[in-house]
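RECORD TYPE: inverse folding
INPUT: structure tokens
STRUCTURE:
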């Protein structure tokens, strides 16, 4: 009795669809859109979905559940000591603590607007935060670790290290540009892009 070996049809590594009959022997994707989508997915995995303007800089630390900054070796880290910072790939791979943190340094021209307790239980924003985001151009925004705050990152400068506003309802706004680390989550707010926009006009209304 003769037997036949089944030949498995080559599949696209992105959509699992069948490759074209005339595809090259080493082809991995069925089309250019699939190849590009796979590249974007791979880049997102490498960068945690965060902007390249940030992931390409050696400004990263790890942090504990209590937001104490650590090196990738579990030693204390400091937002003012570059010797305790690492590049993103190393921090992204590390299992020390609970997540990666980004250190703001004024020479980079990157700022963070830290909106505290502004996300309601139903997912909507308190009025002042919603009004502020109306002024913000398309830039990287992520949900904070608590799920109740937002981190708005962009390009800009401040006259000092930062400013803070506290409101009667328990919400607050902090703006930082230097000597401060932000506990990152990579959980983007709605359709926020993975890039940094110029926040100069927004900062002008605040400071």
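DESIGNED SEQUENCE:
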């Amino acid at each position: 009795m003769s037997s036949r070996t089944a030949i498995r049809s080559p599949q696209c590594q992105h959509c699992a669809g069948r490759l074209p009959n005339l595809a090259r022997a080493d082809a991995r994707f069925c089309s250019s859109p699939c190849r590009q989508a796979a590249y974007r997915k791979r880049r997102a995995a490498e960068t945690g979905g965060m902007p390249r303007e940030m992931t390409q800089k050696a400004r990263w630390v790890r942090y504990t559940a209590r937001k104490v900054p650590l090196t990738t070796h579990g030693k204390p880290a400091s937002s003012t000591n570059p010797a305790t910072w690492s590049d993103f790939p190393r921090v992204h791979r590390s299992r020390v603590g609970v997540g990666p943190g980004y250190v703001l340094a004024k020479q980079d021209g990157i700022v963070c607007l830290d909106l505290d307790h502004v996300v309601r239980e139903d997912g909507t924003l308190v009025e002042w935060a919603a009004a502020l985001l109306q002024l913000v151009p398309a830039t990287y925004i992520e949900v904070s670790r608590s799920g109740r705050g937002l981190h708005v990152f962009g390009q800009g400068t401040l006259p000092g290290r930062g400013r803070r506003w506290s409101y009667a309802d328990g919400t607050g706004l902090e703006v930082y540009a230097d000597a401060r680390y932000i506990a990152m989550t990579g959980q983007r707010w709605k359709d926020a892009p993975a890039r940094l926009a110029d926040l100069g006009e927004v900062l002008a209304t605040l400071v």
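NOTES: Strands lie at 60-63, 69-70, 99-104, 110-116, 141-143, 150-155, 162-166, 172-176, 180-183, 197-198.
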